[in-house]
Amino acid sequence: MPLLKVILGPTAVGKTEYAIKVAEELGSPVISCDSRQIFKEMSVGTAKPTDEQLARVKHFFIGTHSITENYTAGLYEIEALSLLEELFRSHDVLVMAGGSGLYVDALCNGLDDFPAADLQLRDELNGRLKREGVESLRRELKLLDPQSYEDIDIANAQRVVRALEVTLSTGRKFSSFKTAPHKKRSFEIEKVCLVRPREVLYERIDRRVDEMMARGLEEEARSLLPYRSLPAMNTVGYKELFGYFDGEYDLEEATRLIKRNTRHYAKRQMTWWRRDPSIEWIEL
What we know:
There is one protein chain. The chain has 13 helices and six strands. The chain is α/β, with parallel strands linked by helices. A six-stranded parallel sheet has the order 3-2-4-1-5-6, sandwiched between helices. The chain has three domains: 3-113 and 184-196 and 276-283, P-loop containing nucleotide triphosphate hydrolases (Rossmann fold, 3-Layer(aba) Sandwich); 119-178, Histone, subunit A (Orthogonal Bundle), CATH 1.10.20; 198-266, Orthogonal Bundle (Helix Hairpins), CATH 1.10.287.890.
């Protein structure tokens, strides 16, 4: 049976280079499983592979879609499965790499059992979000579905809204859908998660943010200001700079917030993967 090797890890741990080296050894392309690197307009702030890295092995799902598309984990599941079916005709082993837990779960386990959007309820919840702020919705989610409160990115207001929408509209906890029976795949899956000592990872995060700023993250974020209301723009590195553009704080504070929020994101990624007993942990 063909094998999919999935290389996971928190942001800045070194997934890109590790995955490329494994892919080179196996003669495989790299299938990206990153919910932001997939967008062509977001390059500096998503730490896409460099031109040199992209030249070493073929990559898929890097800069292939636009932020103006309503792209979801469910769509990724469909597109990635179709790609894997095609690639497995000529490869026994394929390499996938990414840090987006929901996209990894969609590909490996399937998310099709999530209910369709209840647009009326979503509008009501978004109205509450504007009137009451996200903390009110977080408290309600914590009361109704504490597991989702722990698992999802509660800093992302739209994730909180979606979790509440599903819970209230179906009478089932949002977290229960993620633990539904897994779909069978036509290939085996091996997952490894790369880790580093926390202080080392945090140093790498801080250094990478400084490098992003030097490479033009501020200019990239400024070019995306007209799209700031789109879901893709609710991303660490961009939303902090939007606050700077609005005059809420200076550039030094924006940079500090990007580093802090990236560390928080890395912690949430690790929390997500620790619930998966099939993962092999590799310390770099």
